[in-house]
Design brief:
The chain is α/β, with parallel strands linked by helices and about 400 residues long. The protein has 2 domains: about 25-55 and about 305-405, Alpha-Beta Complex (Aspartate Aminotransferase, domain 1); about 60-305, Type I PLP-dependent aspartate aminotransferase-like (Major domain) (Aspartate Aminotransferase, domain 2), CATH 3.40.640.10. About 40% of the residues lie in helices and about 15% in strands. It has helices spanning about 5, 15-20, 60-75, 85, 90-105, 115-125, 150-155, 170-180, 205-215, 235-240, 270-275, 290-305, 305-325, 345-355, 385-405; strands at about 40, 45-50, 105-110, 130, 135-140, 145, 165, 185-190, 215-220, 250, 260-265, 340-345, 360, 365, 375-380. The strands form 4 sheets. A 7-stranded mixed β-sheet has the order 3-11-10-9-8-6-7, with helices on both faces. A 3-stranded mixed β-sheet has the order 1-2-13. Strand 9, helix 10 (about 235-240) and strand 10 form a beta-alpha-beta unit. Its cofactor is pyridoxal 5'-phosphate. This is Pyridoxal phosphate-dependent aminotransferase family protein. GO terms for molecular function: 8-amino-7-oxononanoate synthase activity; pyridoxal phosphate binding; transaminase activity. Keywords: Aminotransferase, Pyridoxal phosphate, Transferase.
C-alpha cells in the first residue's frame, strides 16, 4: 500500500511547513483551557489576551450570559438545516429587521459568519443560475473592482471570476480611472469601512461619489466599523455618515457584538435572490438560534448605552499615547485597531513568543498577509482590561523591543 504521505508529496505541504518553521513564521494554534475572556489559560499559563477580537467583553458579561442561556431554552441550540429547507428562528428575523433599521436598508440576510456572507455576496453577484426561460439569470460578465487591502474572503471570492481588478488602497482617483475605462459594464465596487491590519478608514463618501457617478454597484464590508463608528461624538463620524449610500452593507458580528455571525443588507429583491444565489445560505446552516437572539440583545445594548463604546475608545486613545511614549511605530489612523510595526518578517514570530513568555497573547501579521518585511503586531485591548494589565504589557513590550530592536 502506498503511504498516504507520499501520495501528497506532489502538493508540497511538507516542504511548505518546513520552510515556514525555518523562517520562524510557524506556530501551533493555541488550545485554550478557559473561556476566551480578557485573560485566558493555556495549560498552566495564564495570559492577558490582547489578541481577541471580541474586544468589548460581552462574552464575560453576566447579563449577556444569562440572556444566551434563556434563549437556548426558548429557541434550542440548532437550526437543523438551511434557511430555505428548515427555516430559521424568530431571533434571526429580529436580527435582520434591526440591522435594516440601523443601516436604512430594505431587507437583510444573515449568515453563519462574516466570511460566508462575503463569499456568498460575490458568488450571487457574478453567477449563472438556471436559464432565463426558467427563472434564470446570467451575471458572469460582472466586473469586480476591489480595494487591494480587502479581507481574504473578498479577494478569494473573486478568484473564480475572470473580470476582477484591484485599485490602490483607499484611492478614489485610481478607482475613477478604472470606472471610466469600463463604462457600460456591470460593475461592483468592493471596499471596507475600517481595515483590520492597519486600522485605516476608507474615504467612504468620496468612494461612493465615484461609484454613483459611473453607475457602479457598491458593497461596503463594515465588519470593523459596525456600532463603533458613526455617532457624531465619535471619530470618523463624517465618513460614516455616508455609509447608508452604499448599495449593500455587510458586517461580521464577531467584532463589536463579539459573537459569530454575518449579515448583508440592501435592496429587497436582491437580498431575496441571495437566498438562492449566494450558496453560503442555501447550502449550509445559519447562525445558532441562541447566538442570533444574543446578537439582537447586544445590538440594542450598544445603541441604548453609547457610553460603553465611548469609554472604550477613550481607553484605546490613551493606550496609543502610551505606546508612542515608549517609541513604538504605530499605524497612522487612530482607530481602535492598533498595529505596531516590527518590519522584518523573521523577527515578528520571535517577538510574539517573547511577549507570550512574559504573559501576553498578541496577534502578528507578516507576508503574505501584509507587504514583505512590513510585519506588525496587532493589539486589541479588551474593555475589561485593568490599568495594571495594560501597564504590565507596556513593560513587557519595552523589554521585547530592546531584545529585537524594532
Amino acid at each position: 500500500m502506498v503511504h498516504q504521505q507520499s501520495l501528497l508529496d506532489a502538493w508540497g505541504f511538507t516542504s511548505f511547513v518546513a520552510a515556514l518553521q525555518e523562517r520562524s513564521l510557524w506556530h501551533e494554534p493555541s488550545f485554550l483551557e478557559s473561556p476566551a475572556y480578557d485573560t485566558i489559560r493555556l495549560g498552566q499559563k495564564e495570559l492577558v489576551n490582547l489578541a481577541g477580537i471580541s474586544f468589548l467583553g460581552f462574552q464575560q458579561d453576566e447579563e449577556i450570559l444569562e440572556h444566551f442561556l434563556e434563549a437556548t431554552r426558548r429557541y434550542g441550540i440548532v437550526t437543523a438545516g438551511s434557511r430555505l429547507a428548515q427555516g430559521v428562528s424568530q431571533a434571526h428575523q429580529q436580527v435582520e429587521e434591526f440591522y435594516c433599521h440601523l443601516t436604512g436598508k430594505e431587507r437583510a440576510l444573515s449568515f453563519a459568519s462574516g466570511c460566508l456572507a462575503n463569499l456568498g455576496f460575490l458568488h450571487a453577484m457574478g453567477t449563472r443560475f438556471g436559464t432565463k426561460k426558467l427563472c434564470g439569470l446570467d451575471n458572469r460578465e460582472t466586473v469586480f473592482l476591489l480595494d487591494r487591502d480587502c479581507h481574504w474572503s473578498l479577494r478569494k471570492g473573486v478568484e473564480g471570476f475572470p473580470q476582477h481588478e484591484y485599485f490602490p488602497h483607499n484611492d478614489p482617483i485610481h478607482l475613477e480611472q478604472m470606472l471610466a475605462r469600463l463604462q457600460g459594464a456591470k460593475i461592483v465596487v468592493v471596499f471596507e469601512s475600517v481595515y483590520s491590519t492597519d486600522g485605516g478608514v476608507a474615504p467612504i463618501g468620496t468612494l461612493l461619489d465615484v461609484c454613483e457617478r459611473y453607475g457602479a454597484v457598491s458593497f461596503v464590508d463594515d465588519a470593523n466599523g459596525f456600532l463603533i463608528y458613526g455617532p457624531s461624538q465619535r471619530p470618523f463620524a463624517q465618513e460614516f455618515a455616508h455609509l447608508g449610500r452604499a448599495t449593500f452593507v455587510m458586517t461580521s458580528f464577531s467584532k463589536s457584538v463579539g459573537l459569530e455571525g454575518g449579515i448583508i443588507a440592501g435592496p429587497a429583491d436582491a437580498i431575496r435572490a441571495f437566498e438562492f444565489l449566494s450558496g453560503t445560505s442555501i447550502f449550509t446552516a445559519a447562525i445558532q438560534p441562541p447566538t442570533a437572539s444574543t446578537i439582537h440583545f447586544i445590538m440594542h445594548k450598544l445603541v441604548e448605552q453609547p457610553a460603553l463604546v465611548d469609554g472604550y475608545l477613550e481607553q484605546v486613545a490613551l493606550f496609543r499615547r502610551r505606546l508612542e511614549a515608549i517609541g513604538c511605530r504605530l499605524n497612522p489612523t487612530p482607530t481602535y485597531i492598533t498595529s505596531i510595526l516590527v518590519g522584518d518578517d523573521e523577527k515578528v514570530e520571535p517577538v510574539r513568543r517573547g511577549l507570550f513568555e512574559r504573559g501576553y497573547l498578541v496577534t502578528v501579521f507578516h507576508y503574505p498577509a501584509v507587504r514583505f518585511n512590513h510585519a506588525m503586531i496587532r493589539i486589541l485591548p479588551n474593555r475589561m482590561h485593568t490599568s495594571e494589565q495594560i501597564e504590565g504589557f507596556l513593560q513587557a513590550l519595552t523589554a521585547v523591543k530592546e531584545d529585537y530592536q524594532f
